[in-house]
Amino acid sequence: GTNLSATTRAWTSADFVGPAAPTSLDNVSVRVGGASAFVAYVSPGQINAQLPSSLSAGPQTLTVTTSSGTSANYGLTINALQPGLLAPPAFTVGGRLHAAVLFPDGVTFVLPPGALPGVASRRARPGDTITLYGIGFGPGSPAVAAGTTTPGVNTLANAFQLFLGGVRANTAYAGLAPGAVGLYQFNVVVPNVPASDTTPLTFTLGNTSGAQTLVLAIQN
Q1: N or C: which end of the chain has fewer CB within 10 A?
Q2: Any long-range contacts for 11-20 (C-beta under 8 Å, 24+ apart)?
Q3: What is the pLDDT of residues 144-158, one digit of tens each?
Q4: How far apart are CA 52 and CA 99, in angstroms?
Q5: Burial class (CB in 10 A: 0-12, 13-18, 19+), 59
């Protein structure tokens, strides 16, 4: 949008009250269905916010309020589940979008070496444990309300399965990411699949397949 904020910043620990995320940053707030969203980032052209837990699936109305006033209503549709794995456009290599997957060191991505300037990367091997992140995967256990830091380990309520080259990977962890707000984490073990820089990566949540078209770099 435009004129959304006079400042540009993300939330910091100082904006939290205990485990509760802020509903306003620099006098910028968002309401959806009459409930306050949790504002993670503001700038003149973009706001990132987490939807509140109280929303029902279906059509809802969104507004943005700043020190200059409140925006016109904007309609959007809320789905009970809308899963997606982290895969920014910058991770497109050779015309194929790679998921942003990390090794346990937390800094090295699963990509062909040197694929992205300044990004540490290597191919994954069968038996490696890798970590993926996403949003929209639904409730976990124990329940964690939106806008609240996940205090510890968590388990998805809906069954999650990940496949590389059509082969199911062993999932060691699937739930909300400890210490984060609204972020899901998946630790999986790479199965024995043929080497390829464009190994298809797919997943299912419950009985529904993910809509993304993603690949991963694998070597043997």
Answers
A1: C
A2: 11/39, 11/40, 11/41, 16/149, 19/148, 19/149, 19/151, 20/147, 20/148
A3: 999 999 999 999 999
A4: 27
A5: exposed
Nearest in space to 132 (alpha carbons), one of 168, 100, 173:
100
Give, in order, the Cα–Cα distances in Å from 76 to each of 31, 56, 84, 206, 215.
Answer: 12, 12, 18, 24, 30
**pTM reported for the whole predicted model:** 0.93
Q: Give the span between the Cα atoms of 17 and 66, in whole angstroms.
A: 21
Dist. CA 174–CA 153, nearest whole Å = 9
Decide the pairing of beta strands 109-110 and 184-189.
unpaired
Residue carrying structure tokens 């205990």: 18
pLDDT digits (tens, 9 = 90+) for 111-153: 999 999 999 999 999 999 999 999 999 999 999 999 999 999 9
By the 8 A CB rule, do 4 and 47 touch?
yes
What's the CA gap between 44 and 89, in Å, rounded?
22
